[in-house]
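User: I've been trying to design a sequence by hand for this structure and keep getting stuck. Would you show me what you'd pick, starting by listing the structure so we're on the same page?

Assistant: Good idea, let's start from the same input. This is the structure you sent:
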């Protein structure tokens, strides 16, 4: 079944990002029938592979549609979930599910200084778009502990490239970042994405194109 799910997601540029079994004592979310889920498969992307599929879908939608990428992801992952008897969930669903914790558990990743999980192959250029919850146990290999590339990065250019030092060891300065992106000097961020993220030396072959980064930055800044 894993191979079939992989193929179904791949038709829209999405990939499986690992999974795990919920322990019996774990407060697992419910599956498609309302019974507790026993397995979860995370769905996401590496690089901007879903972008052309999303754009084709976007052309057929009303221009004023809110959160188009979330809606597209729900539609695609929801169709796969229905086909394979799973419940589809999204990171933006409320009440929020612990997607970050699930990702750490499924792939053995650790956060970068920017908060984005650092992947040993994709660097910072990956994302989680949803998950499939199953009420049966699915055989999955145990994740290996991934090499955390940030540990070997001495220079930390991701903490030195933002003109307003939005990221630091103390965390993310959300409001100053938002004001800068919206302001007169925020043009490079609006058109090319976060300067700190782009400064990371890892996974550069998976970096999102400028138009994709501009799309995400516009969503972040409400532009």
């Amino acid at each position: 079944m894993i191979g079939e799910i992989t193929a179904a997601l791949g038709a829209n540029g999405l990939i499986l990002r690992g999974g795990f079994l919920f322990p019996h004592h774990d407060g697992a979310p419910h599956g498609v029938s309302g019974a507790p889920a026993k397995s979860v498969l995370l769905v996401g992307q590496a690089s901007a592979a879903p972008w052309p599929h999303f754009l084709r879908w976007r052309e057929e939608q009303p221009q004023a549609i809110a959160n188009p990428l979330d809606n597209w992801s729900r539609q695609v992952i929801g169709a796969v979930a229905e086909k394979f008897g799973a419940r589809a969930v999204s990171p933006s669903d409320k009440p929020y599910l612990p997607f970050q914790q699930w990702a750490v558990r499924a792939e053995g990743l650790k956060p970068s200084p920017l908060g984005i999980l650092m992947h040993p192959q994709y660097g910072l250029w990956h994302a989680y778009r949803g998950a499939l919850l199953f009420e049966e146990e699915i055989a999955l290999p145990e994740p290996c502990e991934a090499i955390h590339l940030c540990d070997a990065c001495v220079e930390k250019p991701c903490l030195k490239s933002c003109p307003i030092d939005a990221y630091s060891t103390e965390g993310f300065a959300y409001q100053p970042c938002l004001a800068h992106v919206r302001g007169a000097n925020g043009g490079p961020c609006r058109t090319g994405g976060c300067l700190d993220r782009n400064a990371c030396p890892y996974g550069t072959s998976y970096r999102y194109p400028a138009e994709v980064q501009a799309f995400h930055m516009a969503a972040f800044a409400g532009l």
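That's my pick for every position. To get oriented when you compare it with your attempt: Residues 81 and 208 are 27 Å apart (CA to CA). DSSP finds eight helices and eight strands in the chain.
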